Structures are given as C-alpha cells and as structure tokens.
TrEMBL record:
Keywords: Cell wall biogenesis/degradation, Hydrolase. Belongs to the N-acetylmuramoyl-L-alanine amidase 2 family. Residues 1-21 have a biased composition (Low complexity). GO terms for biological process: cell wall organization; peptidoglycan catabolic process; peptidoglycan turnover. CDD domains: PGRP. The lineage of its organism: Bacteria, Pseudomonadati, Myxococcota, Myxococcia, Myxococcales. Residues 124-263 form the N-acetylmuramoyl-L-alanine amidase domain. It comes from Hyalangium minutum. Gene3D superfamilies: Peptidoglycan recognition protein-like, PGBD-like superfamily/PGBD. Pfam families: Amidase_2 (PF01510), PG_binding_1 (PF01471). It catalyses: Hydrolyzes the link between N-acetylmuramoyl residues and L-amino acid residues in certain cell-wall glycopeptides. It comes from the Bacteria. One of its GO terms (molecular function) is N-acetylmuramoyl-L-alanine amidase activity. This is N-acetylmuramoyl-L-alanine amidase. Its EC number is 3.5.1.28.
Length: 276
C-alpha cells in the first residue's frame, strides 16, 4: 500500500511539473470545494506553496492547508493575508504563473461578448452570510448605508454581532469593497417581496450598499456613480438580471414604507442609462 501511494504521489508531481496550471476565477474561500479549488491548488503546487501529496487525496477542498498556502502567497506578494482568494490574489497568481512560461488563465469574469468588465474590488470578507439554497441570482438590490462614514459602515457589516452584510459596498471615493462572494447569500434585504410576490430576496439577489447618509440632501459622488454603474452593469450582464429586477431596498421591503433606500436624490435615470 505504501508503494502504491508513493507511486501515485510521484505521478501527480510529475504531471504537475510537465504543465503550467492556470489561475482559477477569483472568489474562493475556506469551505469551498470543486474543480476551481483543485485548479487553485495545482497552481499553488506549481509555485511550491503546497505539495502534490497535500492535494492528491481529494476532489478539491479549500481546507486549512490551502488557506495557509494562500496566506503565505499573499504575504510574499505584499497582499492582505486574509486567506481569501479574491481579485488581487488572482491577479498576482496569474502573473506568477505567467513567469513560468505557460498559459495564463483568461479573466473569467468578463464574457467575450460582454460590455462590462468587473471593476477592481477590495476584499473585505464578512462572516455574515449563508448558502443560497440552490437559488439563481436574478435580482440586484441597492441600499444606502445611512451614514457618510465608509470605514464605520464597513466595520459594522464585518462585525458578526451585527448580523448584516452586503455583497459590495461603494464608498464615497468610488472604491468598491466586496464583503461576500456572489454565490453566497448576504444579509441585506430582510423580509421582502419582488413585484408584489413574497420571496426570499436575499436568496436570489446581490446587495450593494452605497455610502450615503440617506437624508436626501447629501449628493452621491461622481466617483460613486461611475463605480456603481460599472459594477451594476457587470452584475446585470454576468447573471442576466432583467432591468426590472434592479431595484432599491424600499421597492422590496415589507411592509411597504419600512425602508427608504436608496434616498430620493439617487439618480436612477443615470444608472439605468449607463447599464442599458
């Protein structure tokens, strides 16, 4: 048995050395599994952050060893050592694999016939999420944070005691923070309905928080609107979201009048023109 295992590990290592793996799509974290995790592990093996023996025994599970390898890679490349494989880590991994002379992965977040690319995001993982339960993404919900303090809003949504989150937050300087992976269920909408039909809005939607006090007098900044348009356009395109399902929190919250965001001075016409 020992001989067979050693032979398998040797074969795996030899195969890895003959080809250069590609960087998988961003958005992987501890607990995920599947072929994209295996692709990440193969890349980490090639760059000597993991061994072939560590990844030869499973179908691709993002466990403690993979997380430790990602953190080491992030530290070596002066990235935040979150252990989350996000856009910045993806870009660095793709660059390092390119130096080996092999093929590099395409950026999978941009369909070949698409208009919008995913804008740069800063990964700021929140623990406040759960699984979608098999529901498809078909809705985008916009919110205002009810303050002009982006740092405070971000901290609140990353605090497990708050039990709230969103997938993205667009700060007043236009920076976009991603708190929850698109494929997970963020906690942003509460009890709701869509077009008058009761539904689990969180289970089917992407939530975007825009830093604004919501009083109706504080303008949404030019930088915010540009970033929001690019992000919303990308998400609409990526998940085939109909324009009628790009809504405000006030449009889905029940009972009616429970929420007012985004505020009355939000420029819906500009956003809709920008993503049409």
């Amino acid at each position: 048995m020992t001989t067979i295992n050693r032979t398998a590990a040797t074969t795996t290592a030899a195969a890895a050395s003959r080809s250069t793996p590609t960087a998988p799509p961003a958005g992987l974290s501890k607990g995920d599994s599947g072929p994209q995790v295996k692709q990440l592990q193969d890349a980490l093996v090639k760059l000597k952050y993991m061994t072939a023996a560590q990844v030869a025994t499973g179908p691709g599970t993002f466990g403690p060893k993979t997380e430790a390898a990602v953190k080491k890679f992030q530290a070596d490349h002066k990235l935040p050592t979150t252990g989350y494989y996000g856009d910045l880590t993806h870009a660095a991994l793709k660059k390092e694999l390119g130096k080996l002379g092999g093929p590099t992965a395409p950026t999978p977040t941009t369909p070949s016939n698409g208009t919008f690319k995913k804008p740069p995001v800063i990964n700021a993982p929140s623990p406040n999420f759960n699984e979608r339960g098999g529901k498809d993404i078909d809705t985008i919900v916009l919110h205002h944070t009810a303050s002009n303090n982006g740092a405070g809003d971000l901290a609140h949504m990353r605090n497990p005691k708050s039990e709230v989150s969103a997938h993205y937050m667009v700060d007043r300087d236009g920076k976009i923070y991603q708190l929850v992976n698109d494929q997970k269920r963020a906690w942003h909408a509460g009890k709701g309905e869509l077009h008058g039909v009761p539904t689990d809005v969180n289970g089917r939607s992407i939530g975007i928080e825009i830093v604004n006090d919501g009083g109706g007098k504080t303008p949404y900044t030019e930088a915010q609107m540009k970033s929001l348009t690019q992000l919303t356009g990308y998400l609409k395109q990526q998940y085939n979201v109909p324009m009628s399902n790009i809504v405000g929190h006030k449009d889905v919250a029940v009972p009616k009048g429970r929420k007012s965001d985004p505020s009355a001075n939000f420029d819906w016409e500009r956003l809709r023109k920008g993503i049409s």
